[in-house]
Write a structure and sequence with these properties.
Residues 124-130 have low confidence and may be disordered. This protein has helices at 18-29, 90-110, 134-150, 174-183, 203-216, 237-248, 274-278, 287-300; strands spanning 9-13, 33-38, 55-58, 73-78, 115-121, 155-161, 163-165, 188-191, 197-198, 200-202, 224-229, 235-236, 253-256. It contains eight helices and 13 strands. α4 crosses α8. Helices cover 34% and strands 19% of the residues. α2 (90-110) links the parallel β4 (73-78) and β5. The protein has a domain at 9-165 and 200-232 and 270-284: Rossmann fold, CATH 3.40.50.720. The protein is an alpha/beta fold.
Amino acid sequence: MSSVNSPQKVLLTGATGFLGSHLLHALLKAGYEVVAFSRKMSDLWRVRDVIDQVQWFDVAGDLASPFKGASRVNHVIHTATNYDRRSENRTYLVETNVLFPLRLFELATYYNTDTFFNTDTFFNTDTILYEYLNAYALSKKQFCEWLKLLAGSTRVFNIKLEHMYGTKDDSSKFVNYVIEHCLNNVSELNLTAGEQKRDFIYVADVVDAYLCLLQKNDQISQAYTSLELGTGNSITIKQLVEQIAGLTQTKTRFRFGTLPYRKNEIMDSKADISILKQLGWQPKISIQQGLIEIIADKKTHEGWCK
């Protein structure tokens, strides 16, 4: 993506997380002025090299502070989320996934922000499916409904993200989890039958899509636009694992079928990327190339593979 002609200000949430940190680096490189929220307990390892290039605000403070600067916030990119994987307090889940971004959107509207980009998930369907993600999916769905209701002068782009993977992701995420087990040559790994298909998209392609939307969003006039972000193709979990096995030359034995599918398992999910293609974006990184980059990164940075 080419650099912007004049500096625009982007308010980024989740800037220290997986997607947010990759976005932060790309936004700075493209010439945007970035202001970001963080928490006192945030781990800054992903952004330590650019920490002085960003104006940081405490999420526990006045949420209006980033909007009160000398220059106007042109865009808000919201990536912060609570997955509820540890069955945390439901009030905290709603505060993080509904109330916080809702207040942020109200402020964006009040301060005449042009666009609000919300990072959604393919789990957010018309029917809440995964029992183990019910609370998370419900909170994401509720916020989307608020955005549909309130979108107007500040236009909303609701980005339904497919299965993103890449370097600097958490070890608990499926792709990194399998890669680390393979690199460590664990004796065996219990898995489902692996017939479910997913649209795996590398984080760099996701970042390019956001930059494309930042630069070309004025080509879409609707107050609220929902779009899907993936490669547009899906492969089975088993195919993915077998690719990882080949690239790592692991001795790990995969026990496909030893774990049951989750209740109401989504058996095939892939993005409709027609809107993004019309704007000139398309994915560039193949699954094999993406996996090679993660494996190389883990081998290079000692301590990532334990």
